[in-house]
Amino acid sequence: MRVEESKFREQESQIYGIRALMEALRAGKTVDKVFIQKGLRGDLFRELLPLLEAGDVAVSYVPVEKLNRLTKKNHQGVVANLSAVDYYNFENLVMEVIESGKRPLFLVLDHLSDVRNFGAIVRTAECTGVSGIIIPKRGSVSVTADAVKTSAGAVFRVPICRVENLVDAVYYLQGSGIRVVAATEKTNRLVYEEDCRVPMAIVMGAEDVGVSGSVLKVVDSRAKLPMVGDISSLNVSVACGVFLYEVLRQNLEG
Question: How many other CB atoms sit within 10 Å of the CB of residue 9?
Fold first, then answer.
């Protein structure tokens, strides 16, 4: 599956001010994150709220000092980032991939925080035929201009979805006949023991804590990479690359 580049904007943009954000939302722009000053009030602010709700936009209420660090402009208590891409609908994408007749291969990224890791993962995903990438709407990296650069433009080739709840997303994948495997050190099973020739989703965890416990409880299987050095873990983008190329190897041989 290829993603039409015309559906995407070239880079992330920052907008500030209540009216500017309202116009962006009304124009159908994909707003990635919104930072609102704690305690903000007023008629214009009340007019903004239903637009944010209708657009299902992630909102963080922060001190004014945070907004002042984000921009030197007159922000009126509101700063927002426009996404570099338009996100895909998760359920629609899963069905589209299944109906295409191609073997599904999804990546679920459990609250990654480093945009460079994210960009590197998307680049490898494009090279290995990943059908789509799923990230949470909150507490996670997003598709910024830095991600575009680090991915070498792969964010324009691999569909990316944002979901409210990763556990629910795992259940949906499983209900769609897709086996979900978590990459974790909390197992004795090596990735080479997995049958990767089936419809599959691989869960990669955050850089500091790995795959969350709630997700580990519901996956179909857990797998790890063999480690013989003194350092107990790999960078998440490197580990993800090894997992994806093991999937590719098995399917090429099969």
Answer: 17
Which of 223-253 are b and which e, b meaning 16 or more Cβ less than 10 Å from the residue's Cβ?
bbbeeeeeeeeeebbebbbebbebbbeebee
Distance CA 79, CA 34 (A): 6
- Whole-model pTM over 0.90: no
- Topology classification of domain 90-253: Alpha/beta knot (3.40.1280)
Query: What are the backbone dihedrals phi and psi of residue 36, each rounded to the nearest 5 degrees, phi first?
Result: -120, 135
Ordered per-residue pLDDT tens for the chain, 254 residues:
333 333 434 334 788 899 999 998 988 888 888 999 999 999 999 999 999 988 888 888 999 999 999 888 889 899 998 888 889 999 999 999 999 999 999 999 999 989 999 999 999 999 999 999 999 988 888 887 778 888 988 999 999 999 999 999 999 999 999 999 999 999 999 999 999 999 999 999 988 889 999 999 999 999 999 988 877 778 999 999 999 999 999 999 86
> How far apart, in whole angstroms, are the C-alpha atoms of residue 63 and residue 68?
9
Residue 28 falls in which region: left (phi positive, over 0), alpha (psi -120 to 50) or beta: left
What is the C-alpha separation between 11 and 13, in angstroms, rounded?
Answer: 6
**What amino acid occupies position 56?**
D
- Which residues on adjacent β-strands are paired with residue 60? 35
| Integer Cα distance of 16 and 35 in angstroms | 10
Tell me the CATH number of domain 5-82, given options 3.40.50.2300, 3.30.930.10, 3.30.1330.30, 1.25.40.180.
3.30.1330.30
